[in-house]
Structure formats: structure tokens, C-alpha cells
Amino acid sequence: MYTDALTIFAGMLVLVGASGLFVHAVSSAGRILKLREFSVVFVLLGFATVAPELFIGLNAVHAGIPELAFGNAIGTSIASLSFIGGMIAVFSHSFKTKNFFHHRDLSSLTISVVLLFLLASDGYLSRLDGTVLLIAFAYYLLNLIQYRKAFSLKIKEPKKTLAVHLFIMLVSLLAMHFSSQAIVFAGKDLAVTTGLTPFLIAVALIAPIGAIPELIVELELVRSKLSNLSFGDLFTSVVVNSTLVIGILSAVSPFTVQVTELVQFSVLFMVIILMLFNYFVRSRDELSWQEGLFLVISYFFFITSIFIVSGAA
């Protein structure tokens, strides 16, 4: 049991490190290719920061434990909106949103998450469900590209050549593949030895650590006084998790989702967080540090509660 837990922890350290290198290489390559800042911040980083979830998901489905893939995607989305979103507000003191996104951004985010829950409510995600999720993601991305204007950011030009960054990206992808494979197998063994469900292991253990790269990116934007952009890749990563990641997994290999009390509780909590997030942001076009702190505390409440709900506490 302890060996499996240490393997998961060590694997997540490698995965987080590789993900960080991948994010840096992707953003640097984007600058070298002279992509618009919007493309770098909102799209490329949004994709890059969910690479760990995609690799874990693919390996989990291949290993025959799709509950771990589903739990990791749900758990990471919950962590993004509550813990990471809250931390952004706390460190920014008051996060102004009206200059960053339109309300339809938040609506698209909400619809994407709710759509996933509706499709999974029957306990099975088919290839058709996966296709619907992929279409939903394409629609979100198309709308995002159509009305976003370029941002004026002062980002230092990369010193390394494009070839070096492409090599770093390749090595990072290989490291993420093998580390996620080790995490999945260790998670499977841990579920057997402890009696914990793969979904619980993913939500309570893997997802919080996997959210670290996203937190690093967001806090770096805050530190660089670019907090007005920090929800850009956060929103993209949540939508990618809810639509693209699960869509790819179910389209490649349809899987069954056991709708247990733990899954129902996690879905209910996600819906509540979405409602709170919508209320906080839409009421005054800002997220105060007090509201952010409430979201952070809510996340720790969720982590504690899932053990009680599952009967593991």
C-alpha cells in the first residue's frame, strides 16, 4: 500500500515537472512562431496544462479502469474552479473580470460541464457521447477565437531556438506518458489493497497534485501583474477537461461510469461550485479575496467530505 502511494507521489512529481517543462516549451515556441498573445495564453497554455489529465486518462482507459480517468477529469475541474480560482482571487486581492471575459465565456464553461454530467448520467459514455463532447469543444474554441482580440503583453522573447523547445516538448511528452502509466498502475494496485475506489483515488489524491501546474501558471501571471489574463487558460483547461479529454477517451474506447453516491456527491458539489462561481462573478464583475477564500475552504471541505461519503473515513 505504502509503495503504491509513494509510486503515485513520485510519478506525480515527474508528471508535474514534465508538464511544467512542456508548458514553458509550448509558450516559448508560440512566441518564436510569433503567434498572437491570445493564442499563447488562452489556447496553447490551456491545452498544455491539461496534458497530464489526457495522459492519465488514456492510460487508465487502456488499463481497464475508466473510473480513474473520469474521476481525475472531474476532480481537476473542481480543483480549478474552487482551489485555483480562489487562490487567484486571494493573491490578486480583488480579481476584476469585466475587462477579461464576456459572460458568455462563463456560460460556455457552465454548459460544457453540465453537458458532460448529462451524457454520463446513464452510466455509460459511448462514442456518440464522445463525438458530442468534441463538437461542444470545437464550438467553444470557435467562439473563443472569433471574438477575442489580441492582447498587448510584454513577454520576454525566448533565448533558445525553436528546435530546442521542440526537443523539450518531445522529451516532456515521453516523460508524461511513462509517469502517468506508473501512476495508473499504482492507483489500480492501491484500490485493490485499500478497498478505495479508483474514482476516489483520482479525485482525492491524483487530481489535487495534477492541478499544481495550473496553479503555478496562474500565480505566475498574478506575480507578473497579468492577473487580468489568468482566468483565460484556467477556463480553457476546465472546458478541455470536460469536453476534449473525456470526449477523446469515450470516442476511442467507450466506458461505463458507475454512478455511486460518491460520484453523485462530486457532481452535486461541482454544480454548486459552478453556481457560486457564476453568482460571485456576475454580481459585481469581480471575484473578491473573501469570495476566493470561501472557494478555497470549500475545496478542502469537499476533499474531507468525499471520504465520509465513501465510508472510507
From TrEMBL:
<feature type="transmembrane region" description="Helical">
    <location>
        <begin position="131"/>
        <end position="150"/>
    </location>
</feature>
<feature type="transmembrane region" description="Helical">
    <location>
        <begin position="73"/>
        <end position="94"/>
    </location>
</feature>
<dbReference type="GO" id="GO:0008273">
    <property type="term" value="F:calcium, potassium:sodium antiporter activity"/>
</dbReference>
<feature type="transmembrane region" description="Helical">
    <location>
        <begin position="293"/>
        <end position="312"/>
    </location>
</feature>
<feature type="transmembrane region" description="Helical">
    <location>
        <begin position="234"/>
        <end position="256"/>
    </location>
</feature>
<dbReference type="GO" id="GO:0005262">
    <property type="term" value="F:calcium channel activity"/>
</dbReference>
<feature type="transmembrane region" description="Helical">
    <location>
        <begin position="262"/>
        <end position="281"/>
    </location>
</feature>
<keyword id="KW-0812">Transmembrane</keyword>
<feature type="domain" description="Sodium/calcium exchanger membrane region">
    <location>
        <begin position="166"/>
        <end position="304"/>
    </location>
</feature>
<feature type="transmembrane region" description="Helical">
    <location>
        <begin position="162"/>
        <end position="187"/>
    </location>
</feature>
<dbReference type="InterPro" id="IPR044880">
    <property type="entry name" value="NCX_ion-bd_dom_sf"/>
</dbReference>
<dbReference type="InterPro" id="IPR004481">
    <property type="entry name" value="K/Na/Ca-exchanger"/>
</dbReference>
<feature type="transmembrane region" description="Helical">
    <location>
        <begin position="38"/>
        <end position="61"/>
    </location>
</feature>
<keyword id="KW-0472">Membrane</keyword>
<feature type="domain" description="Sodium/calcium exchanger membrane region">
    <location>
        <begin position="6"/>
        <end position="144"/>
    </location>
</feature>
<protein>
    <submittedName>
        <fullName>Putative calcium/sodium:proton antiporter</fullName>
    </submittedName>
</protein>
<dbReference type="GO" id="GO:0005886">
    <property type="term" value="C:plasma membrane"/>
</dbReference>
<dbReference type="InterPro" id="IPR004837">
    <property type="entry name" value="NaCa_Exmemb"/>
</dbReference>
<keyword id="KW-1133">Transmembrane helix</keyword>
<feature type="transmembrane region" description="Helical">
    <location>
        <begin position="106"/>
        <end position="125"/>
    </location>
</feature>
<dbReference type="Pfam" id="PF01699">
    <property type="entry name" value="Na_Ca_ex"/>
</dbReference>
<dbReference type="GO" id="GO:0006874">
    <property type="term" value="P:intracellular calcium ion homeostasis"/>
</dbReference>
<feature type="transmembrane region" description="Helical">
    <location>
        <begin position="199"/>
        <end position="222"/>
    </location>
</feature>
<feature type="transmembrane region" description="Helical">
    <location>
        <begin position="6"/>
        <end position="26"/>
    </location>
</feature>
